[in-house]
Amino acid sequence: MAGHSSRISGFYRGSVAERLDALVEHAGVDGAVRGYFATGGGLAIDAADRMSENVIAVHGLPLGVALNFTINGHDHVVPMAVEEASVVAAASNAARMVREGGGFHGTASAAVMTAQVQFDGVPDAGSAEARVAAVRDEVFACGNASIPRMVERGFGCRDLDVRVLDAAEGIVVVHVYVDVGDAMGANTVDTVAEAVAPVLQHALGGFVGLRILSNLPTRRRVHVHCDVPDAALGGAEIADGIARASRFASLDPYRACTHNKGFMNGIDAAAVALGQDWRSIEAGAHAWAASKGTYGPISTWTRTATGLRGEVDMPLAVGTVGGSTTAHAGVRAAFALLRVSDARELAVVLAAVGLASNLAALRALAGEGIQRGHMRLHHRKHEHAEPVSCPK
Length: 392
What we know:
By secondary structure, the protein is α+β, with helices and mostly antiparallel strands. The protein has 16 helices and ten strands. Helix 11 runs antiparallel to helix 12 (278-289).
């Protein structure tokens, strides 16, 4: 990352060609990647046909870049695919504020996903945990045998636990925890769930139910924090307002929902550009927000002596290998632009983009109001729009 910068002054004022030239100069974009973006990017129809079903065309979204991000001491230019102009502009502006406080800092845990194997009618459900513990090694051996290439790379089954959901009906679920490396891991975890079900049924009895991953990967977490000086935010009064708005979200699920939408604006746009399963990310984030018994905020902002501290701790399953990361030329180009080394670094970057988007929304609410900035960008989007004529 040495010599690469995400701080590119006046970037938004340039033409598309000038922006691409700036990325070559400042962000290390090579000629092949620039050439791909210069043609408009997109997805070839034959590739689209291989990726999905009943394909008739390719649906486009604007691909922009969020600037000013410094994360764990490295600069990142973040690709974002989204139809809403304010999402990219807001993330870039907030990242500039955070940059003045030293940037974002974060860590991600190992990529441990959760395979669920569900049983009905288990006799003596109270002893289920002990019976499963007795076949733990056999479960792991069977699960690992089903994913030999993953095991060869040093990953595979790591742990398990048992949850009795209804003792009277004998409803039991076994979680098998699988380290999937740099993959998102859905297919790997589903394979393990299918493979270990017969071993578990032999130990538990009852009837095998669902065998599938959970999109709430509580052992695959990312934590990111940042400190923002009062001066970067526009003064202590605005910082106070942001902290109060964050507190409001912690007290009221109606507000928390919109607070979290502002956070997910950034993650989703970057996730789409980078070929991630954004539906899984959304599901996990909102389940996590409700996991304490009432729906609450994913991120928090609190006052410090000199400004604000923002924090997020959440489950986040992303991958740098497999899926669209190999099938989609645009996704490969987006990764070349972003420059991350593995899935854990990708998770930290996405969580930082979420915090930036969240901060921008809260600052607008505490300052000029959310609508003024939105409408300024909406006007720009529509002033040159062609009228749409629908086929009859």
